[in-house]
Amino acid sequence: MIFKRFWSWPGELKQRGILGINARNLLIAENNQRHFFPRVDDKSLTKEICSANNIPVPETYAIIRCPRDIKRIPEIIANKQEFVIKPARGSGGRGIMVITGHENNIYQTPGNALSFTEVKYRIASTLAGLYSLGGQPDKVIIEKRIEPHRIYDDVIVQGTPDIRLIFYHYQPIMAMLRLPTLASQGRANLHQGAVGVGIDIENGITLGGVCKGRETAIHPDTGKTIRNLMIPAWEQIISMGSRLSSALELVYVGVDIVIDRDGPVVLEANARPGLAIQVANHLGLRPRLIHNPIVP
Amino acid sequence: MRELRATIFLAIMITVTAVICIFFRIKWNSSKNEAIPDNIWRLTYQIELKNVYAKDKIHVTLPVSLPHARIFREQFEHSGLLVDIVRNKQNQTRNLIALVRKNGETIDFTAFFDIKLHEKVAYKTKTKITKEHLANYLKGNQNIQVKSSIVKKIIKKWKKDKVKQDQVLGQIIKHCAGLKPRQNARFTDAARTLAKKTGNKLGRARAMIALCRAYNIPARLVTGFLLKANKLSIPHHWVEIYQTDRWVAYDPLLGLHRNLPVFFIPAAYEKADIVQCKGKARWQSSFSMEIVKLSQADESPGDFSNVFDLTRMDSSFRQLLSTLLMMPLGALIIVIFRNIIGIKTFGTFGPVILALSFVYADWQTGLALLVSIIIIGIVGRTLLDKLKLLIISRLGILLTLVVLCVTTAISILDFLGLTPSARAVLLPVVIVTMLIERFHITTEEDGMAYAFKLLCGSIIAAFVCYQVFSWQRLGSVVLKYPESLLIVMALLMLIGRYTGYRLTELVRFHSIEEK
User: Fold this and answer.
1) The complex's ipTM?
2) Chain A nearest C-alpha distance from B449 (Å)
3) Per-residue pLDDT for B94 more than 60?
4) Which candidate, A217, A210, A216, places its Cα nearest to that of A277?
5) How far apart are alpha carbons B397 and B400 in whole angstroms?
6) What is the value of pTM for the model shown?
7) How many Å apart are CA B17 and CA A256, to the nearest integer?
8) Pick from A7, A279, A284: which is nearest to B506 by CB?
């Protein structure tokens, strides 16, 4: 039996241009100014910056800042069947409630039906900081629900796919499409089983993907190919992300964009984007950090 | 790049500063290392018995009170033992015999002896001993091989060199003092010490006794302590020779003879061990000594430089400080786990505090408690979910549940006669409460597999921290040289600039092939 090595040596990874988390953290520490982080940590601030720079974002219906505002929710969503409730300072898709319909104080989510009491409880927990970074008190954003573009019809069963782009000195250096799966419970979270699909940064065409660390060319739930999908409005997406990274004044930043039926919108930005994008693209980030050769 | 150079430079400067401070401290300590006469010393025995069975017996030899080193106070602390002190009228030694009352896990025994040292050694009075008794000090045994070939060879050589009878003792002392010291020698008997011409203090003492007895000079082994400041001590061994109706002391290791300095405190004669256990229990012992503040004569704190001597404080404070001083080491371990290995944990320093609590509780009780409490806590947390309580109230209820679990578990263990260490209650209940809450949330948000991964990482990190913290020698070194933590600081700085791959990334990114 031939022993197949399941690890690489550091020199091999360096040769492949892989950026490790320690190097990434140093890159962020040296390039991103700490006092700009709230701009991305708080989604409501990110939305304000986007709006100020004519970057499309999902329409905000309301921002709940304290428990007494919760009682205004029925009034806010009276004529809106679908919406999303999410923490302003959450990460990784945590704490997001997608409401696909409501009637007589019963709120339908993709997997469940919740009473208004349960919805209030979730919102109150979110305000108390259950999902926020550092457990600090938070705000709750109620915004328009995104309807995924038709291009994804073959490759989603639930949830909304998003595109993660990494910008360095306001230039896109890598991108991936994150497709939710049943395993990820509709979340575009690679740790929970979503598929990460690399995208050719030049033309917006998907490459192969990974799911739970394994290479894949098809979606695990639909069985349809995930290769060679053309991301619509690619140039617009690049432009939006570039303008946002510039407005945020963050040298190294991740921008998450979803493509609504009306066009691309920015969901959020991330000052500490993960490195799974390298696995999805089968490429390292290092060679693309050409402005900053100090990354050892 | 500039910051990297600055960090490396600063780390080097801090390390050099630490080394210099340690060097000066060693010099300072050695100048006050010898027992200062006319002071009060506290000699402490600490014995830990594990997995004890009823009727296990422990013999503890107590220090001998001498005219110039008078034990004016002694105190014994223990639970689960029946103790009695037996005095040997012949040699004035005292043996404490402790009987274990019932089966259990761990018993701690501590004895304190407050000794007042005088400046001068009181000259030993004559000691009459019978011929039969004296014969015991001329016989050989398995460790003092009077009739061994090497002893015969040495005597034959000296006879050949025409060493006179009145010069024999001097020759023996010279020969034994000239043996090469070897602290960690595995052999402690006379024959091998003489044959290999090297040995530790016990071997050297036995060698001297064997030679004396071979020349028909009554000699006996003395086991006791050298009172030296700020030391975690091991018993010392020397020799007493019966001359002109009195026992005269000789130290073949230190080359001392006749009147040994005041800080030689004997405890046992003809025995190498201070503590002996007869039974199934596993045991370990440690001895320490310190100068106690004088209650009458000199209340002044002395030189301000004593501020830097943490070992001058009394034992309870020292234990507290030892705990505190270990925390940076815990931080270093966590940083290594995260930044170099790549193992994530629940909370940054939670595992450190968890490990510290295990050091002061026995780890078996602590671990059993922890696992039970986590299971109960997770079940409780799941049930609490139904009530839809706000997070702070929920945490408060979880904390109450954890506290009730800890106290009930300890009561049950005591009822079952498993005598848990009382210190198990120090289990950091707040940390455990947060752990339960975070585990639950992580399970909900990121899946059970990821939550277990973090939990395993936390337990492994806590285990490694525990191994380091329970290393007594390390604790006493850090207490004695607190500036050594500057080296820890320097290491933390360097790791803070480490940009290499984490070990887990070598696996994670393996699938990305070279293009």
Assistant:
1) 0.84
2) 9
3) yes
4) A210
5) 5
6) 0.66
7) 49
8) A7
